[in-house]
Design brief:
Mean pLDDT: 88
Largest sheet: 3 strands, parallel
Low-confidence stretches: 514-523
Number of strands: 11
Strand content: 5-15%
Number of helices: 20
Strand order of the largest sheet: 1-2-3
Length: 523
């Protein structure tokens, strides 16, 4: 699957290169390459040219290239869902015998190296000591050498610095840090640049998304009292929009961590008792659902403007808030996922907060001069650790001495991490938790509304409650209720998403109606 918004000539060229790299990867089995075009009505000429190009490809036996489109913008995950519906329709019509066993998802601006898809499939199919296979396998992500090094003149530009910093960062975070599957904290996410998972798991995502939304705190309390939890097997609803939003690739990784193998099938049922939840969590710590494949390499580009990279990192680093809201009460049952999320979020908040205090407040305090020396020593030690990690990552990737240029990023790597790593995380968390919600522009608000996912957004909720109180005092048509502090649309208030990605939907926080009959329209 290669989902994309095809809006510019450069994106068409990038998609062609991505498809070409997949076709040249040498995958030994049958292969269906699907370009899932979102908002095709906005780029009909580009879609037509893409279809013409794919129809002229010379393909090996067992290899197909499909182009599927969604007329209006629905978001990346929904574009993939539309492509899966097209494949399902082919199976129902008898045009295709069955689903492919493995589903690869790849960004449309990435390029995969030969043999990488085969390595991912092999790792996914290889049983571990427990007898179980992994549930999702991410590839080794890097930045194209031609993107981050174009000579010394480019190096001293903003674009050159940003691209080489990201290239160095990926050598550590996307390679060295994920190489050991038995590190202290399990891998919680996968990069959308390229990963492989079981199609069986992916096809259960819409139903599981609706299922977790149906769980209530009451179910969890009764579970502790000995009552069996709600059964996923008997649940019939679906919510394809459940995966949409920032971190939708990580949503699939969390789905994989929530699952387990039972008699050769993927099982997503809730643990029957807290004891079972504890046993599953302990086992999942040693038998990881996410297994990194270092020899499966995929290369991509990176934003080369400060604004573009900052927006990307805010979306990446703060997606945990959205994902926790999406999985909701299920995290109280699935301890193999809930425990590591809590630990991960706590580390982000604690260490991020400590760094902010040191960097922002320390210069304004009247401290003993020894603290200055300690701060300098800490900075030097951090730089030495970062240098060692970079060198080890490059040695592991066999990039020395050919790609030594990444070492040139080290002098500014500290400020880069502070600005694009720490500050983006803190800003995203503050906006989503304390202010009015974080608009990443990653998905259209209509899809977000259908997903039914709100935000904590305390400032938004308090403002909404205040405006409703004023209206109730003036018109007397707003009854009291929990919806005063809600996020979803009611007959008096629009959805919290209204106007974020569609200027035509912008409106006042409280509808200008003189009277509204009936009870509240929801919470």
């Amino acid at each position: 699957m290669l989902p994309t918004l095809l809006t510019r000539e450069a994106e068409l060229d990038g998609l062609r290169r991505a498809i070409g790299s997949v076709l040249a990867s040498g995958y030994p089995g049958g292969l269906v390459v699907c370009a899932a075009i979102d908002h095709a009505d906005a780029s009909l000429d580009l879609v037509r040219r893409l279809s013409h190009w794919t129809s002229g490809l010379s393909l090996a036996s067992g290899v197909e290239v499909l182009v599927t489109t969604t007329p209006q913008r629905v978001g990346k995950a929904m574009a993939i869902e539309h492509a899966l519906r097209a494949l399902r329709a082919q199976i129902e019509r008898g045009e295709r015998q069955c689903w492919p066993k493995v589903l690869f998802s790849m960004d449309a601006d990435s390029e995969v190296t030969p043999g990488s898809l085969e390595r991912i499939a092999a790792t996914l199919s290889r049983p571990r000591w427990s007898g179980d296979c992994p549930l999702i396998v991410p590839a080794n992500l890097g930045v194209r050498a031609s993107h981050y090094w174009k000579g010394w003149r480019h190096f001293f530009t903003v674009a050159g610095q940003l691209s080489i910093q990201v290239a160095r960062e990926f050598a550590v975070t996307c390679s060295l840090n994920r190489h050991n599957s038995f590190r202290l904290l399990p891998v919680l996410g996968v990069s959308g640049a390229l990963y492989g998972t079981w199609t069986e798991l992916y096809l259960q995502a819409p139903r599981y998304g609706a299922f977790v939304k149906s769980l209530r705190l009451r179910d969890w309390l009764l579970w502790w009292l000995g009552r069996p939890p709600p059964a996923f097997a008997g649940f019939s609803g679906e919510l394809p929009e459940s995966t949409i939003g920032p971190g939708d690739d990580t949503w699939i990784a969390w789905l994989a961590i929530s699952a387990r193998w039972v008699e050769g099938r993927i099982d997503l049922e809730l643990p029957p008792t807290p004891w079972h939840a504890l046993v599953r969590a302990a086992r999942a710590y040693f038998v990881r659902a996410v297994v990194f494949e270092p020899e499966a390499r995929v290369y991509t580009s990176t934003p080369t403007t400060i604004r573009g990279l900052y927006r990307q990192r805010v979306r990446w680093n703060s997606s945990r808030v959205w994902l926790i809201a999406r999985f909701g009460t299920s995290l109280l049952f699935k301890w193999q996922l809930g425990c590591i999320i809590v630990f991960d979020a706590a580390m982000v908040l604690v260490f991020g907060g400590m760094l902010v205090v040191v960097v922002v407040l320390f210069p304004f305090t009247r401290s003993d001069p020894q603290w200055v020396s300690l701060a300098i020593l800490s900075a030097v030690a951090t730089m030495l650790v970062r240098t060692a990690a970079t060198v080890l990552g490059m040695l592991q990737e066999r990039e020395l001495p050919q790609r030594w240029h990444k070492l040139l990023a080290l002098p500014l790597s500290g400020p880069f991490t502070l600005v694009f790593g720490v500050s983006t995380t803190i800003l995203g968390y503050i906006k989503d938790l304390l202010l009015f919600g974080l608009n990443t522009g990653f998905a259209p608000e209509e899809t977000l509304i259908r997903a039914g996912t709100g935000r904590l957004a305390l400032a938004y909720r308090m403002r909404r409650a205040l405006l409703l109180a004023l209206r109730a005092a003036r018109h007397g048509d707003v009854p009291p209720g929990a919806f005063w502090f809600g996020w979803n649309e009611t007959r008096w208030t629009p959805s919290g998403y209204a106007g974020w990605t569609n200027a035509a939907r912008k409106g006042p926080p409280v509808y200008r109606k003189e009277r509204a009959a009936g009870p509240s329209a929801g919470t």
